[in-house]
Amino acid sequence: MAEEGLLDRLVGWFDDQLGFRKTPLKPVPEYVLNPAYWLGALLAVTFVLQGVTGAIQLIYYVPTPESAYSSTTFVIQNVPYGLLVETLHLYTAYAMILLMVMHGVRNYFSSLHKGRRKLMWMTGILMMAVVLSYGVTGYLLPWTVISKSATDVALGLLGLLPPGLREVAKFIVAGNGSDADELRHFFAVHIMVLPMALITFLAAKIYMYEVHGPAYNPVFGRGRRDYIGWFPRVFLYALLLASLYVGALFAVAALFPLRLPPGFTAAGASGYVIQPDWYLLWLYQLLKFEAFEGGFAPLVLGGLGAAYVLLLLLPFIDQSGRVYPGDRPVFVTLGLVALAEVLTLTVWGYLTPGQVIPNLDAVAVLGSVALATTLCVLLLYSYRAGRSVSRPAPSSPSVTLGIPTRAVVAFVALLSIASMALSSLASTMGNIGNSELLSGGIATGAILLMALLVRRTVALHERITGAQ
Questions:
Q1: Residues 276-294: pLDDT tens digits?
Q2: CA neighbours within 13 Å on the CB side: how many for 22?
Q3: pTM for the full model?
Q4: Among 209, 237, 270, residue at a domain's last position
Q5: Euclidean distance between CA atoms 47 and 198, whole angstroms
Q6: Dihedral in degrees, nearest 10, Cα atoms 58, 62, 67, 72
């Protein structure tokens, strides 16, 4: 009791001196004391760490092709704790990307883009583009053989843009095209333009959060809904969570320090198979598909641009009143398939550096991942539907995981047929003949029949949940 009284007096003293209890921040429900609700706050903490470590590097960094690498190595070798600062700056950049993706995934599956939170969602999607741009621009600045070569490959993608837009984009990003201008533009964008954009979006999100309050998250929002003030309980919880997070980042940076590749030279670059950093490996792998070699690469960028616009406008596309993942089978399935494909492409790109991927291999791998993910989601929804209805009468057909056993057997059989047909296509790797056309027809028919089974099961699930 004595310790509790001392803590209460200490908290009261700070409150008297600083007026914490008079904060304009609104009270929040008790269920927000959950780390899943603080991903955005941890992102802001990471941004502050990025600013601090970046400011230290800025004292010594010289943004010229002749001095960029040497000034970076100077910090590592001669500045006290310089290696820790460089490593922490790199890891916090990675952490920002991971937290942004986790934050977006959580909001997507929890329907936090609905109601009065449309602009909050759109602001978050714009922030995602800014954070990725942070990583891309910062990647070049050490001027290593890998970062410079990978950046040049990325800049080559700007040539796929339509005429007019292509020239403007190239000038904004790389100036007149010389190495010195390219580095200078990347440096200016990294330390001025992107921080201003991120601060603006972050301030807008904080304002909208305070106006609308925390949304009830159907996945992580378990617990009491009693409202509690920010000080002292929420403040101390946030301080504890941020301290643990920052401590973990420092520990990882100390245990796994940065290993800087050699500085860039044209001769040195020829000895490396150039790949982008891990967060862009999925895009790199897509562009390695045989179908997109040559003049068809703009299709990839056009498709990804359209997907980004659709994601940005999701609040106006998904306007149903359903918020629980269990009541949104179509959007949940699409989201899980997209995540599975991105993860597959990332790992695949890491394992096959510099290799062109044959079309049939691409279809077989991505198609199998999509089918397997859809099947898993189908079984989960079927199991949930089976648990939410009464047991069938003795005269009813036998069920497995909530759906007729015959449907399960048919789906597995169709999946096997489609897999064998796709494997047959992938193994030929030659001119298309009658047998290949037959295999393609069988695979197409089996996939269409599986799609019909999925559609029928989803429709049944929606009728069941709608009747409850």
A1: 899 999 998 998 898 887 6
A2: 6
A3: 0.78
A4: 270
A5: 9
A6: 0
